TrEMBL record:
InterPro entries for this protein: S04_transporter_CS, SLC26A/SulP_dom, SLC26A/SulP_fam, STAS_dom, STAS_dom_sf
Domain of life: Eukaryota
Entry keyword set: Membrane, Transmembrane, Transmembrane helix, Transport
Keyword Endoplasmic reticulum assigned: no
Localization terms from the record: Membrane
Name recorded for this polypeptide: STAS domain-containing protein
Length: 646
C-alpha cells in the first residue's frame, strides 16, 4: 500500500503547479486594463498590417458605414426601401404622440425622426435598429424638467432645456463609448428594465386618459395617486365624443395587433395601423369640426425642415444642473433600451453589434439632434421590431425613413393639424400595453425571487412615487445584491464521485463520498478585504464540523484541501486570512494544501511568502486528486514513524 501511495505521489510530482511564472508589472496592468475596457479586443490583428491599412481599419471601426456601404447592392436597397417606408409610417404618429407626451410641440417629434436616423446610419453598428423617440425617456425627461420649469409657465425655456438635456445626453453617451465604460449600463439589469418599463407603461396609459376623455387640465406629476386624483378633479371636462372615438381607435389598433399574432406575414398591417388612425382621425375631425364638438386636435404644424437650435442651448447656473440630471438619467435609460434591442435582434440573425460603438453613435446623433431642434432619441423596440420584420438589410432603412420624414416636413406637415389628440392617446396606449410583461414577471418569480423583488421595486417605485425613485431604488437593490455576492461568496465541500477522479459539491451530489481524514473545500470567488473575514469563519466552521464527524468514526482530520480554481484574484487582506487559517489549523495538527491556483493568485502568494515560507511549495498541487494522494502519503509516513517509535 505504501508503494502505491508513493507511486501516486511521484506521478503527481510530474505535473506541478508552475510557481515560477512571473509577469512584469506593466504587462499585468496592461492585461488588466485590456480585459476591463477592451474585452472584445476590437483592434486584434492590426499589428501585422501596414500603417495605412491600420488607419483605414480604425476609421472603419468608428464609422461602420465605410464597412457596409462599398458592398451595398440594389438588391439590398429593395429590402431597405420597403423597411424604411414602413417604419416612416410608424414614426410619424409615434413622433407626434411622444412629443405630446413630453408636453412639447408635436412638430419636435417629427424633427427628431429626421436628423438622428441619418447620423445613426453612418455611425451605428446594428443593421436592425430603427432610430426615434421613445415613450419612457420622453416621460422621464418631462417629469424631471417640469419640477422646476412647468411648460405652461415658460414653454420656450422648457423646450430649451429639452435641447440642452439632449446635448448632455449625447456628451455622456459619447464619453462612455470612447472610454469603453459600457459596464456602467450593465448596472441596469434586465429585471430593473422590465420593472421600470412596466411601471412607466402603466403610468403613461393612465395619463392618456386625459386625451381619451378630451380633458384640458391635468397634473404634471406621474405617480398613480396624483393621476387618479387629477382625472376625477377635472371630471367636468370629460368629453363623451372623445371617449367614443378613442374606444373605436383602440379596438382598431388592438385588432391589428391580434391579426399580426395570428398571421405573422401580415405584420405590415399593425405597422401602418397607427398611421391609418392618424389619417382617418384627421379626416373625421376635419369633416365634423371636431375641435368645436369635444374632440381636441393637435393644431398648427409648421412646414419646413429642422431649424437650428444651437443658440437655444442654455448653460446658465440656474438650469444647467437640471439639464445634466435629466440628460444623465434619460441617457442611461436610452442606452440600455437601445443596446438591448439591438443585441436581441442581432442574435436572431446571428450578427454581432458593438455596445461601445452604439454608445458613440447614440451620443453623436443626440449632440447633433440638440443642434437641430431634436430631443432625445434612441432605438425603440416597437419601431426596431417593425424594421426587422420588414426585412431590413442595412442601416440604409434609417436613411429611407429620414427622407420620408423630410418630405412630410417640407410638404405635408400642415395636413396633420387636424389629428385628434384622442388618436395619439390611443396609439400610445396600445404601444404601452406590450411593455407590461406579465409573463416576464411570472417567469422572474418562478426562477429567481430576488430578481422578482428588484423588478417589483422598479415597478412600484415608478407607479406610486416617481420614475427616478423607482429606477434608483431598483438599481440600488441590484448593487446591494452584487455586493452581497462579493461579501458572502459561495463555498462548498467537495466529495468524490466517478471512482475518485471527479470531485463535486456534496449538497448537489448527495451520493458523493467523503475522503477519510481529508476535507476538500472549494472557494468560488475573488478573495478581498470585503469577504476575507467571512471566508475565514466559514472555513474554520467547515473544519470544526468535519472534526466532529471524524471523531464519531474514531478518526482524526489530517488535511484540508483548498481548491482555488475559482479564485480569480486575491488582495493583501485575503493573503492575511489564509495565513490566519494556516496558523489555526497548524495548532490543531492539520495540514493545508492548495490546488490549481490561477496565475495572478500564484504570483501574489509567492511574493508574499505564503507558499514558500508558510505552507511550503510541496503543498501546492495541480489537481485535488494530487493533493489527496500527497495527504495520504504524508499520513502513512506519520503512522509508520509513530509505529517505529513504539
Amino acid at each position: 500500500m505504501g508503494t502505491a501511495a508513493g507511486d501516486g505521489l511521484v506521478a503527481a510530482a510530474e505535473h506541478k503547479v508552475n510557481l515560477s511564472a512571473r509577469r512584469p508589472f506593466v504587462e499585468a496592468v496592461r492585461t488588466g486594463l485590456a480585459e476591463t475596457f477592451f474585452p472584445d479586443d476590437p483592434f486584434r490583428g492590426f499589428g501585422s498590417r501596414p500603417p495605412a491599412a491600420r488607419a483605414w481599419g480604425a476609421l472603419k471601426y468608428f464609422v461602420p458605414a465605410l464597412e457596409w456601404a462599398p458592398r451595398y447592392t440594389l438588391d439590398k436597397f429593395k429590402y431597405d426601401l420597403l423597411a424604411g417606408v414602413t417604419i416612416a409610417s410608424l414614426a410619424i404618429p409615434q413622433g407626434i404622440s411622444y412629443a405630446k407626451l413630453a408636453n412639447l410641440p408635436p412638430i419636435i417629434g417629427l424633427y427628431s425622426s429626421f436628423v438622428p436616423p441619418l447620423l445613426y446610419a453612418v455611425f451605428g453598428s446594428s443593421n436592425n435598429l430603427a432610430v426615434g423617440t421613445v415613450a419612457a425617456a420622453s416621460l422621464l425627461l418631462a417629469s424631471i424638467i417640469e419640477e422646476e420649469v412647468p411648460p405652461e409657465d415658460n414653454p420656450q425655456l422648457y423646450l430649451q432645456l429639452f435641447y440642452t438635456a439632449a446635448f448632455f445626453t449625447g456628451v455622456i453617451q459619447t464619453a462612455l463609448g470612447v472610454f469603453r465604460l459600457g459596464l456602467i449600463v450593465d448596472f441596469l439589469s434586465r429585471s430593473t428594465i422590465t420593472g421600470f418599463m412596466g411601471g412607466t407603461a402603466a403610468i403613461i396609459i393612465m395619463q392618456q386618459l386625459k386625451g381619451m376623455l378630451g380633458m384640458k387640465h391635468f397634473t404634471p406629476k406621474t405617480d398613480l395617486i396624483s393621476v387618479i386624483h387629477s382625472i376625477f378633479q377635472y371630471r367636468h371636462e370629460w368629453k363623451w365624443q372623445s371617449a367614443v372615438l378613442g374606444i373605436c381607435f383602440l379596438l382598431f389598433l388592438l385588432s391589428s395587433k391580434h391579426l399580426r399574432k395570428k398571421k405573422p406575414n401580415l405584420f405590415w398591417v399593425s405597422a401602418i395601423a397607427p398611421f391609418m388612425v392618424v389619417i382617418i382621425g384627421g379626416i373625421f375631425a376635419f369633416l365634423v369640426k371636431g375641435n368645436e364638438h369635444g374632440i381636441p386636435i393637435v393644431g398648427d404644424l409648421k412646414k419646413g425642415i429642422n431649424p437650428l437650435s444651437i443658440s437655444q442651448l442654455t448653460f446658465t447656473d440656474k438650469h444647467v444642473n437640471l439639464a445634466v440630471k435629466a440628460g444623465f438619467f434619460s441617457g442611461i435609460l436610452a442606452l440600455a433600451e437601445g443596446i438591448a434591442v439591438g443585441r436581441s435582434l442581432a442574435l436572431i440573425k446571428n450578427e454581432q453589434i458593438d455596445g461601445n460603438k452604439e454608445m458613440i453613435a447614440f451620443g453623436i446623433m443626440n449632440i447633433a439632434g440638440s443642434f437641430t431642434s431634436c430631443y432625445l432619441t434612441t432605438g425603440p423596440f416597437s419601431k426596431s421590431a417593425v424594421n426587422f420584420h420588414a426585412g431590413c438589410r442595412t442601416p440604409m432603412s434609417n436613411v429611407v425613413m429620414s427622407v420620408c420624414i423630410m418630405l412630410v416636413l417640407l410638404f405635408l406637415a400642415p395636413l396633420f393639424k387636424y389629428t385628434p389628440l384622442v388618436a395619439l392617446s390611443a396609439i400610445i396606449v396600445v404601444a404601452m400595453i406590450g411593455l407590461i410583461k406579465v409573463k416576464e414577471f411570472c417567469h422572474l418569480y418562478r426562477v429567481d425571487k430576488f430578481d422578482f423583488c428588484i423588478c417589483m421595486v422598479a415597478f412600484i417605485g415608478v407607479v406610486f412615487f416617481t420614475m427616478v425613485i423607482g429606477l434608483g431604488a431598483s438599481v440600488g437593490l441590484s448593487v446591494i445584491r452584487a455586493l452581497l455576492h462579493v461579501a458572502r461568496p459561495n463555498t462548498c465541500k467537495l466529495g468524490s464521485i466517478a471512482g475518485g477522479d471527479v470531485f463535486r459539491d456534496v449538497r448537489h451530489y448527495p451520493h458523493a463520498r467523503n475522503i477519510p481524514n481529508v476535507l476538500i473545500l472549494q472557494l468560488g470567488s475573488p478573495i478581498y478585504f470585503v469577504n476575507a473575514g467571512y471566508l475565514r469563519e466559514r472555513i474554520l466552521r467547515w473544519v470544526e464540523e468535519e472534526e466532529n464527524a471524524c471523531k464519531i468514526d474514531g478518526q482524526d482530520l489530517q488535511c484540508v484541501v483548498l481548491d482555488l480554481g475559482g479564485v480569480s484574484s486575491i488582495d493583501n487582506t485575503g493573503i492575511g486570512m489564509l495565513v490566519e487559517v494556516h496558523k489555526n489549523l497548524d495548532r490543531r495538527g492539520i495540514r493545508i494544501a492548495l490546488t490549481n491556483p490561477r496565475l495572478g493568485v500564484t504570483e501574489k502568494l509567492m511574493l508574499s511568502g505564503y507558499i514558500k515560507d508558510t505552507i511550503g511549495e510541496e503543498w501546492v498541487f495541480l489537481t485535488v486528486k494530487d493533493a489527496i494522494t500527497a495527504c495520504r502519503y504524508a499520513l502513512q509516513r506519520s503512522r509508520s514513524k509513530d509505529d517505529g517509535e513504539v
